[in-house]
Amino acid sequence: MKSTIQVMDSAAAATAGFAAGVTGATFAMATTATSDGLGHLVTVLNNTATDHSAKTIALVGTDENGNVQTETIAAPGTSATVTSTKYFKTLTSATPSATIGADTFDIGWAAGSRGAWFQPDLNSGGEFNVGIGCTVVSGSPNFGVVVSYDRSAWIAHGTIAGKTANFGGQQVVPVRAMAVQFTAAGAVTATFLQPNGRD
Predict the structure, then answer these.
(1) Is residue 176 a contact partner of residue 149, using CB atoms and an 8 Å limit?
(2) What pLDDT, on the 0 to 100 scale, is given for residue 144?
(3) Is residue 20 exposed (0-12), middle (13-18) or buried (19+ Cβ within 10 Å)?
(4) Which of 76, 111, 146 marks a domain boundary?
């Protein structure tokens, strides 16, 4: 039997969670990790009326499972916010393609977050079946389960999506990884149980 229990308390969005008022050609992170230990979408807020959207920002850190990860996003336009498409548990650097001069950006995270992956045993020799149980502990989370066939592209689970209360379901089609993903902050305990899997 292979199983794991994850206790996740997804943090609310923090506009300047990684750094406030960065400027110039090199951005220094005040902190390099999210406050809840989950992977979050990274946000960059332009505090000025200058349009910097022709520039890019190279993000370097780790994903929700601790793997090294990079993403290049467009810099924000006038008083705008841009958001990454990948989830970062840590952000070690954010480097603009050109200086932003005396203007300032805030670098933080969105409410969108993702927990560590459960990776099923695909060599158990039996019928594939993973039970998934999610219990709301506190707050008003909105969450679901996402699955991946290649550990890079993720799709929403067919029935465990947009949940705000306790919910249980299963995954019967073989996948390489699955994880709980939040769109609103709150605490959830998730249990993944594969009866014929091996740890």
Answers:
(1) yes
(2) 97
(3) middle
(4) 111
Q: Which pLDDT tens digit goes with each residue over 123-148?
A: 877 789 999 999 999 999 999 999 99
Q: Is residue 50 part of a domain?
A: yes
**Do 73 and 57 touch, CB atoms closer than 8 A?**
yes
> pTM above 0.85?
yes
CA distance 100 to 196: 55
With beta carbons less than 8 A apart as the criterion, state whether 127 and 184 touch: no
Query: Domain limits at 163?
Result: 2-6+115-194
- Specify the number of domains making up the chain: 2
Same domain, 146 and 94: no
DSSP H or E stretch at residue 39 = strand 39-46
Q: 100-112 burial, b for 16+ CB within 10 Å, e for fewer?
A: beebbbbbbbbbb
The pLDDT-based confidence of 199 (bands split at 50, 70, 90) is: confident
- Distance CA(41)–CA(11), nearest Å, equals 12
Residue identified by tokens 């990454």 is 84
- Residue that terminates a domain, selected from 61, 81, 111: 111
